[in-house]
DNA sequence: CTGAAAGCGCTTACAG
DNA sequence: CTGAAAGCGCTTACAG
């Protein structure tokens, strides 16, 4: 019932060596003869001894912990994507012997919340942190980078002269957006609208830029009435369509949504007005959300490998923490069209 | 670019007091005059000082971290429920000023994985841990309890003489199961089958017991051919129905699934064989999974408040860690029927 | 190859 | 009300 309170002094005594030697064995120093090592390891195993992490860190070792910071607006967080992200980071960190301290930031502009995040870094609980869902160039993250902490940010611009302690990762949103327009154009659509994502996020901007460029390349003109504001949420997709319908102007024959959640919301609004997808209007998403395949209609979208991206981000971050040479500071992942049932030929 | 490496000695010097006093201010000792306190706090704020967590822990303070251990079989973990659990624990721990170290256990019988978990406790990285998805009386968890660690286990039996360092939480599965049978019985069903959950889990057993009892109370007999094995996964629901259909015996008019995932799998298998739900057979689930409402047909099920349960579990665990008096060692949550479209009157 | 000793940055009796 | 000092459990130059 009593917690075994054995420490390195005790192990040293039982093995008949000094604490220095015990420490050398634990830290795999090469200058310990096999015999001594085995003797010490035996005592360690017999007594269920694990070195106290705080003492190790205080003595200069790494915390072997990375922070995972999820910036999620107030909304309920039953998101399946979020879960994939978390699990991906945890599992890959684990493979490197690292632990993950997850923290949720409900409002990245709230001073107190920012202070909580800073505290985690300054208290040295973590060796580095990954941020997901941040605005591009979010000031408090920039500050942490300036302060020298090892930081990885998903969906973020890499500065022209990147600091050695910063890495970013992105999908090739430009390519993805061009694929959506190319596909719709191929189906004969010329009247194509878009629901934008959050323009404070890098992906919101690059997707919109990609859309504009692709429309031009395909010789199509953009009708500003059909370019709707959104913020990557289901609700924003729903509301943007409601607003569009309320204006009682003509509809495009196809809409490119900034992501699948937005597409779901848009389809929900359309359905409520008796407008059928894809019979009356085609909708294409972005992300290939876990639900898109099961959605009615099954959503045509751009597939993106979040799990793999976070895996790479985690490995890169750990490499950076351990000061291993890193080939690059930016991870870019390709993405590609998945055709399902939400778009039709015109 | 250089990390500010200020410590309490430096703060003390700048404030013109001793480190003892700085520590007293940080730890809210009552015997520090307001003037001294303010002077110190000012210096702390000016210099972005946060006490080193490792040093605090080593000196005897709590790590203010709880471990969240998810036991999930090898399968892909894009589960929306898992995400709710994680987020619920993180947010409520955060409210108490605690951090969460999440760890995934792919195989609770693997010695190395168990050792990894033990390490986290023995290294004193965490003050206590919550386990989700464990078998009832999982040996390695029992051992951690014996070793005196503060442990909370979801879906677990409380021993007759509970240790002071153990808490458990459960849904009233018995009640839930009785509601499913009562509802089906009310719809006129007499030929009711069941797909069991994992019988190593407490909920698997209590749901099955509840089913048997409820059938008896409603004066219905159980046909053993219609009581199928399962393990709480979509796949097991699918496979159990495939196996049943392969036997080419009669079907029940209704099936109670151990949870919604199992129900989804069962419906998928039935659909593949052209058997319609609810027209040809009624299916009722358990959990009210986030997808159940959007499922075709929308799933009739038992609603359970996972998020609230984990919230309570987290609060209880922290109370236990802080040695606050705890009214009870077991959390039991009620659950109730949600009628949708997957069952029909006979 | 190995031990004695200093040091990591805190907290907290202890003494005044 | 406050400071000097011991102690938490490690690691790692340093010396031999």
UniProtKB/TrEMBL annotation, chains A, B:
Ranges for domain HTH cro/C1-type: 9-50
Keywords in alphabetical order: DNA-binding, Repressor, Transcription, Transcription regulation
Domain HTH lacI-type: 6-60
One protein family per Pfam: LacI
GO molecular function: DNA-binding transcription factor activity; transcription cis-regulatory region binding
Domain of life: Bacteria
Classification via InterPro entries: Cro/C1-type_HTH (IPR001387), HTH_LacI (IPR000843), LacI/GalR-like_sensor (IPR046335), Lambda_DNA-bd_dom_sf (IPR010982), Peripla_BP_I (IPR028082)
Protein's recorded name: LacI family transcriptional regulator
Source species of the chain: Paenibacillus rhizovicinus
